[in-house]
Amino acid sequence: MKKLSVLIVAITCIFTLSGCVADYASVDDEKFAKTFKIKDPNTSQIYIYRPKHYFGSWMKKRVWVDGKFAADLTNETFFVAIVKPGQHIVSTRSEFGNNHITFNTKPGRNYYVKQNIKYGVFAPGSGIRLMSYKVAMKDILNLDLVEGFEDDEKDIDKKDFNELKSELYSQNK
């Protein structure tokens, strides 16, 4: 009976912790990202980061750029999205739906979006906001870069995203 209890606890820990593991990028990619240089001056970069936060630190929170899956951020991680200049929507999963921000980017510039974990009714939620480069760069230097993956199954539904885009863009006019 004691062995069974230990086995159940061990399996539970493995499944719980596996949800917290991030897909870290290579050391070289992280070093380059932390220089804040842009490889192609005709593009923009959006740094999306999640600083250290004790509440909800065990949870992955999904991030999308223009409705496309970008990364699952965990505590103390960041991701860099390379985008064409223009208007963009960054979204994050929260407790009762997704939170979004929209902004314009210019070629050869970096933009910084901070993901915060916030208290929820049933589970931690997340919010996002644009940050100044001075604050963001200081924060990012202490974080780990995660890999981004293209995964159509994790994209926001195209119909839902097009409706969201129309709504957000009309609010910004």
Strand order of the largest sheet: 8-7-1-4-9
- Weakly predicted, low-confidence segments: 6-21
Q: Please tell me how large the radius of gyration is.
A: 18 Å
Helix fraction by DSSP (H/I, runs of at least 4): 25-40%
- Listing every helix as H and every strand as E from the N terminus to the C terminus, the arrangement reads HHEEEEEEEEHEH
Tell how many strands the DSSP assignment holds: 9
SSE-based structural type: alpha+beta
The biggest beta sheet is recorded as:
5 strands, mixed
Q: Beta fraction of the residues?
A: 35-45%
Shape: globular
Measured between the Cα atoms of the first and last residue, the distance is 66 Å
Number of helices: 4
Describe the protein:
- The chain has 173 residues and is an alpha+beta fold.
- The chain has one domain (23-171).
- It has four helices and nine strands.
- It has helices at residues 2-18, 27-33, 133-140, 158-171; strands at residues 44-50, 61-65, 68-73, 77-83, 86-94, 97-105, 110-118, 125-131, 144-145.
- The strands form two sheets. It has a five-stranded mixed β-sheet with strand order 8-7-1-4-9. Strands 3-2-5-6 form a four-stranded antiparallel β-sheet, with helices on one face.
- The longest helix has 17 residues, at 2-18.
- It is globular.
